[in-house]
Amino acid sequence: MAAVAGVSDTGAPTAGTGAPIRVLIVDDDALVRAGLAMILGGATDIAVVGEASDGAEVAAAVRSYAPDVVLMDIRMPRLDGLAATEGLRRRPEPPEVIVLTTFHADEYVLRALRAGASGFLLKDTPPAEILRAVRRVAVGEPMLSPAVTRRLIDHVSDTGADGRRRYALELLGRLSEREREVAVAVGRGKSNAEISGELFMSVATVKAHVSRVLTKLELNNRVQVALLAHDAGLTLP
């Protein structure tokens, strides 16, 4: 992870110094790659270190360029972004992944998030939002709202929903009561500061609980915690 400016619990960038965020762009459309490179290249705290045109090139590109964040197209001809994301997340200390799509509710997007992607962006997302997303995931902050997560899950046909719910409840059963409360709050899209106020604990304690939840459940990021809480049916009003 780059030593970069941080992000507050409200999502706003905070002051910081250090190396720029290293970004790898993966898309089979040269025009999309050029457009993203132009957007990202205009930011002083972000550096596009490499490009790839297919998921099959991702592993070698990550070894060569050591990116902090990968912008990953979902649909590519040889190896799609889902398989490439799954491969990356199995690496020790993998880069963060943001998947790119032209669809709001794409089954592949949901699968990529379950595989460990930190979020997704539509290819027509405004430049300022693309920059904000890269900065957020580079410091380990989620960029997917609970409303978007809910719409994705509701829109995608999931014939294994009952089995997934049982599995999610079984996994969450590994947690202490307090850790489970934190996991559900993460699933509802609460920031660390909001969880702190809601559960009457310090922000540092919230962060420690989140870290233990990720370790106990063998998950990569808060998005996966949120999806697990959604699968378990624990985030509904």
Question: If you had to describe this structure to a student in words, what would you say it looks like?
Answer:
The chain is α/β, with parallel strands linked by helices. Helix 3 packs parallel to helix 4, helix 8 crosses helix 10 and helix 8 packs across helix 11 (222-231). It has a 5-stranded parallel sheet with strand order 2-1-3-4-5, with helices on both faces. It has 2 domains: 21-143, Response regulator (Rossmann fold), CATH 3.40.50; 160-231, Orthogonal Bundle (Arc Repressor Mutant, subunit A), CATH 1.10.10.10. The chain is 49% helix and 12% strand. Helix 3 links the parallel strand 3 (69-73) and strand 4 (96-101). The N and C termini lie far apart (35 Å).
Name the descriptors.
237 residues; alpha/beta; Rossmann fold; 5-stranded parallel sheet; 11 helices; globular; DNA-binding response regulator; transcription regulation; DNA-binding; Tscrpt_reg_LuxR_C; Sig_transdc_resp-reg_receiver
Could you outline the blueprint of secondary structure elements for this entry?
Blueprint: E1 21-26, H1 30-41, E2 46-52, H2 58-65, E3 69-73, H3 81-89, E4 96-101, H4 107-115, E5 119-122, H5 127-138, H6 146-155, H7 161-172, H8 177-187, H9 192-199, H10 203-217, H11 222-231
Parallel strand pairs: 1-2, 1-3, 3-4, 4-5
Helix pairs in contact: 3-4, 8-10, 8-11, 9-10
